[in-house]
Amino acid sequence: MRQFQEMPMLFKLIKRPEPSKSMVFLSPVIALILTLLSGVILFQLLGVDPMEALYAFFIEPLTSRYGWGELGVKATPLILIAVALSIGFRAGVWNIGAEGQLTLGAICGGGIALLFYDVEAFWVLPLMIVAGIAGGMLWAGIPALLRTRFNANEILTSLMLTYVATLLLSLLVHGPWRDPDGFNFPESRIFNDAATLPVILEGTRLHMGWIFALALVVGAWVLMSRTIIGFQVKVVGEAPAAARYAGFSVNKVIWLALMLSGGAAGLAGLVEVSGPIGQLLPTISPGYGFTAIIVAFVGRLHPVGVLFAGLLLALSYLGGESAQISMNLPLAVTGVFQGLLLFFLLASDVLIQYQLVRRSSPSAVTQ
Amino acid sequence: MTKSFPGVLANEKVNLTVQQGEVHALLGENGAGKSTLVKMIYGILRADSGEIRWQGNVVDIHSPAFARSLGIAMVFQHFSLFDSLTVFENIVLGMDVRDTSNLRDEIGEISTRYGLPLDPDRHVYTLSVGERQRIEIIRCLLQHPKLLVMDEPTSVLTPQEVEKLFETLQRLSSEGMSILYISHKLDEIKALCQRATILRGGKVVDCVDIESETASSLATKMMGEELAASSPKQPNTHGELRLEVNDLNLDAEDEFGIPLRHIQLQAKAGEILGIAGVAGNGQDELLSAISGESVSGDNASVVINGLESGKLGPNQRRMLGLASIPEERLGHGAVPGMTLESNGFLTAFRRLGLLSHGFIQSRASRDFAKTVIDRFDVKANGEQATASSLSGGNLQKFIVGREISQNPELLVVSQPTWGVDAGAAQTIHEALRDLATNGTAVVVISQDTDELMKISDRLGAICGGVVSPFYPTSSLGIEQVGLLMAGASIDASVSGDAHVV
Questions:
Q1: CB spacing of A3 vs B66 below 8 angstroms
Q2: pLDDT tens, position by position, B32-55
Q3: A7 touching B, CB under 8 A?
Q4: Fewest 10 Å CB contacts: which of A29, A263, B365, B411?
Q5: Is B241-329+409-485 a domain of CATH 3.90.1150.10?
């Protein structure tokens, strides 16, 4: 009979009797520290002074009032999307296509701005906001319909629709929506003042969208912790059979999750084109819809956590630009840092359910 | 041997001796430390202190593989089988040796010698629980063990299957194999075992010869106090009709489900209606059809309190007075990662008005959870403890308590005491009886025939998605219940005056 030889290891993982509450909060911190350590090694290998690079990446962007404003500008779409995505993730609805819903929001909201480009009226901006939200919802409605009617996996359908959306935007700005006085550049007209979000902090680009993001954080917090809707979302995500037993409709929750995240992503798209960008371009987002997925997980799928995680990831965008300008580092450093952070976070999350124990002590081996 | 877990001393200086060729019972309530002890014997857990001697020599059993190489085999309460593979494939997967050339012959030989008939090419999902258990036993016997450990093997078997299992075990012990038999069913232990070690609260209370003990003296030692005799039955069959199921047909939702066919049953206020049956014969489907988790196309197929409700959802049925308790506690009856407060709210929010304009009334929800915890003596770390942190028995007490505290007029419950210790089972049985006495119609679906014989007023069985007629429990013997569970008709054998509903 073959003998099972155990590997001589110093530590082993043991399942905790109850998930650790402190680890839920510590895990992102551990992940951040490991990301920074990896950054040091990475910069060392690139032949760059790590301390200088980390300063350029994480500190320099925040040394001016303008920099803080930019942090809010970048964090706004991330927080808007991630707050709504995390509600869906808690329900087990994996909307990966927020980038596409963001694009559709920009197209629909921006379309209104272009339609009324010569109208200076107070109702243009609200109409754009409604159109932006509706556009995102429409785009998220397709995966919702496919999932609830045909049980098609929303991860695939929502992701694929992203590419359709970005091509649609490209088609529009190269064709019918191209600025007639724009020397044939693939850009739309610049929106007029009535179609532009007002700036809320003098001397920066920080705009009204930041207020929307904060309002959504508060609204989502109340929704998830105090209302029957949030309760249903959590039960459906954690125990679908128990949800059925309690009389909650899984399909309704799927629709709710996708409408919320689609609408929020659409709003984020509209906020981008009527805020910092001010017109429609072939590319309007440096991957906010995808980065928001990282934001949602780093923020522990909790609205307040998402607020802080959104600021952190926004900093990674600013840091990438700053490191490129001051140290000639490639912009891809941003993507590397974002990827490392998610990677380490998912790895650290094992400590929520398991604990490290020295092997020498006689204790339980998990079955 | 001593073994402690954080916060609990699971085994305290426990001694256990098993002789060759003996069937030795390990007796105790859930939580008494039986599982911890056998897990140490089988190398899954390691003792904090103490030693194990195997055939006179001190051994350090550090892994199940090492235990198997010594000649110790174990049949677990929960089987580890792959439904979509065949019997043969499952056995090969569980073997330490990879040489499978003679395996088929060996399986055939063992199954004929010990009366364990099995077709090696059938898929596991087509087998009954009893047949699945045979796979596990054959798996063990293939290793020619000297000690066979069996953890609560009869909890899911029909009386006939239990009898067959006992024949097999007696033959094995007559050939010199030692068997360590874990159970809290006293009559089984009386029938099968020679000696018993009794555990209570992690300590050995006594080691006795079964011959000189009665079932009640064993029970006293196990529980530590005299068990109150269960309240005498006062069948009340004149109450008003609370539940009527009329020719209910429901197709299975997936390929492993059981379609329900022509289900006909009635439950009246004040009675406990028992539905026996071996696992996987449509119990889950029947419960869902009554609770509203599955809706029928025919509104008249389920009538609750006189109202046709076949097309209504669970909460509408709750408002008509229905409460239901599914078999699966974690993940169905309760959400594992949520607090008891939230789990109380889960089914009670409509009937008890714990919701105001869509907002959860957290104070009222907390009070409700506290009430249930106090009233049903649920051992938990307050109402903020997560459901998954409770032991099976305590969680079941909480779930049963949650439904009963909503004062239902009709309660449908599946497997109320599955995997629950004798003390909690007693609490639950009394609660169900009290509920019926106070005028609720109670339907109990269970695989535990003894339980149904004890608490139900009328009894029937479900087999292959078809429900038998119901008979007064007092007119039925255990044999006849076994026949009903196997789908046979017993009309001729029941005394003529028993009225059939």
A1: yes
A2: 778 788 888 888 888 888 888 888
A3: no
A4: A29
A5: no
